[in-house]
From TrEMBL:
Compartment annotation: Cytoplasm
Subunit organization: Homotetramer. Forms an RuvA(8)-RuvB(12)-Holliday junction (HJ) complex. HJ DNA is sandwiched between 2 RuvA tetramers; dsDNA enters through RuvA and exits via RuvB. An RuvB hexamer assembles on each DNA strand where it exits the tetramer. Each RuvB hexamer is contacted by two RuvA subunits (via domain III) on 2 adjacent RuvB subunits; this complex drives branch migration. In the full resolvosome a probable DNA-RuvA(4)-RuvB(12)-RuvC(2) complex forms which resolves the HJ.
Region (Domain I): 1-64
HAMAP family found in the cross-reference section: DNA_HJ_migration_RuvA
Name of the protein in question: Holliday junction branch migration complex subunit RuvA
Origin superkingdom: Bacteria
UniProt keyword list: ATP-binding, Cytoplasm, DNA damage, DNA recombination, DNA repair, DNA-binding, Helicase, Hydrolase, Nucleotide-binding
GO biological-process terms attached to the record: DNA recombination; DNA repair
NCBIfam families referenced in this protein's UniProt entry, alphabetically: ruvA
Main location: cytoplasm
Record's function text: The RuvA-RuvB-RuvC complex processes Holliday junction (HJ) DNA during genetic recombination and DNA repair, while the RuvA-RuvB complex plays an important role in the rescue of blocked DNA replication forks via replication fork reversal (RFR). RuvA specifically binds to HJ cruciform DNA, conferring on it an open structure. The RuvB hexamer acts as an ATP-dependent pump, pulling dsDNA into and through the RuvAB complex. HJ branch migration allows RuvC to scan DNA until it finds its consensus sequence, where it cleaves and resolves the cruciform DNA.
């Protein structure tokens, strides 16, 4: 199992990169987001990888960040989502955006990816909602350290989720604070968002 490659970026294509590791060129499939993050050809790069083994091929898929690889694994666990569709979703959405979309059941956001229709987007949201506790997401949405998706300290993600649904920042903050006060700080993100939505809608 190849979990990571560290070498020099030899070249890139529309959906792949070639990483030179000690004179051996590894062809790695990748999302457009990962390809953009790799930097210029000739520079040192590190990619997290997933090895896909089938009866007639062995392929590597690469990711600029470990959490993208985690999401790739989750997405491909859903019936109807192959590696190509999973990479299309990761090209269209940041991991934090994907997390919020799944947590709030926002199938329209998931369906922004090429090759993902409304039915498949709904299936992804339904099947992954109970699994996303295993996936780390950036605290506050972008940058910074990482906080576990399940268990405590979800107010920033919940506020962001409500804002994505059209609520003003003040409304979202107030609703999340009220929900957190009722559920406690150890409430899951899903429970926090659901109760905050009910409170914001009143």
């Amino acid at each position: 199992m190849i979990a990571k490659l560290k070498g020099r970026l030899d070249s890139t294509g529309l959906d792949h990169a070639i990483i030179d590791v000690g004179g051996v060129g590894y062809l790695v499939g990748a999302s457009s987001r990962t390809l953009a993050a790799l930097g210029p050809v000739g520079e040192a790069v590190t990619v997290h990888t997933e090895m896909l083994v089938s009866e007639d091929s062995i392929r590597l898929v690469g990711f600029a960040r470990a959490e993208e690889r985690d999401w790739f694994r989750l997405l491909t666990s859903v019936q109807g989502v192959g590696s190509r569709v999973a990479l299309a979703i990761l090209s269209a959405l940041e991991p934090a955006e994907l997390h919020r979309s799944v947590a709030t059941g926002d199938k329209a956001m998931i369906a922004r990816a090429n090759g993902v229709g409304p039915k498949l987007a709904q299936r992804i949201a339904n099947e992954l909602k109970d699994k996303i506790g295993a996936v780390p997401t950036p605290a506050g949405g972008v940058g910074g350290g990482f906080a576990a998706v399940s268990g405590g300290g979800h107010s920033a993600d919940a506020i962001s989720a409500l804002q994505n649904l059209g609520f003003k920042p003040a409304e979202a903050s107030s609703a999340v604070a009220a929900a957190e006060g009722e559920l406690g700080e150890d409430a899951s993100l899903d429970a926090l968002v659901r109760l905050a939505l009910r409170k914001a809608a009143k």
